[in-house]
Amino acid sequence: MTSSPAPAALALPVTDEALAARLHGRMAEVEALLAGHVEGRTRYVSEAARHLLQAGGKRFRPLLVLLAAETGPHPEAAEVLTAACVVEITHLGSLYHDDVMDEADLRRGADSANARWDNLVAILTGDFLFARSSELTATLGADAVRIQAETFTRLVEGQIMETVEPGPDEDALQHYLDVVAGKTGSLIATSARYGARFSGAPREVEEALAAYGEIVGSAFQLSDDILDVASESQESGKTPGTDLREGVPTLPVLMARASEDPADARLLELLASDLTDDARHAEALGLLRAHPAMEQARSYVVARADEAKALLDVLPDSPVKEALEAFADLVALRTA
Q1: What tens digit of pLDDT does each residue of 212-237 get?
Q2: pLDDT tier, 174 (very low <50, low <70, confident <90, very high otherwise)
Q3: At 107, phi and psi to the nearest 5?
Q4: Counting beta carbons within 10 angstroms of the beta carbon of residue 170, is it exposed (0 to 12), middle (13 to 18) or buried (19 or more)?
Q5: Which of 4, 115, 290, 295 is deepest in the core (most CB within 10 A)?
């Protein structure tokens, strides 16, 4: 069995040394469990299934399970560790499918599974991981199975709706926000819910953390949208305007398209055109960076982060609450 690398640092901003030490220790346990859970009965399946696990990642979802578990009397419960594995394996399975949909060649700095093998192997490996996460969920009880099924339904529906243009009577921005909530927010909400539930936290806390997770998870994706336009590659490691070049609708683009200002005619013309051309792409990127839609998008994300923090009022003042509040702020103001 080959173990996967533990993240060098916690993906959440935890300043309390005792809390950070506990989370580091439990994340090491989760890593060891993950390495075993992705093993199949044959070497070929095991190699494909561990491919993205070994490529690393921030492990944000299982870490959120562990942090949310600190709100209950039994944060060290075995069920908490199992739940952390469930959400990460579900996430990993979705990445295999994402890479096929996006025709991606790289994932986390390594060859994507579809590039290393082919689309069929990538799709079936994602299915294998979804099945394995379902097996683990079954050990957590019938209610956990229901929660996981509902989460998976939302996640897949979000992935499907991402490929569909909104209808003529639909609001394009709301369509996109629904996609983000399903594809990204739903699993992060379940991560927080699982941590609270399996540590024995009160139901009021569980519901508040689930709502917090959905908002912060969605806001994280929306921050990515802003960075795609605003960042310089030397600052963020991203290629500026990648989504713009590929014609992917994102929060700033959708907000700019809603403009009725005649001065925006050239930008709207460019956004409706093929931006694989370097000159048009550069012009569109420059106009979008200067457009009020950028500040509008930032304000929207900040407001969502404030909404998420308000939900944490059910928690007493503690390092756990501070870490959750800090993460919401980080999402709203991140530059990388």
Answers
A1: 999 999 999 999 899 989 887 544 44
A2: very high
A3: -145, 120
A4: exposed
A5: 4
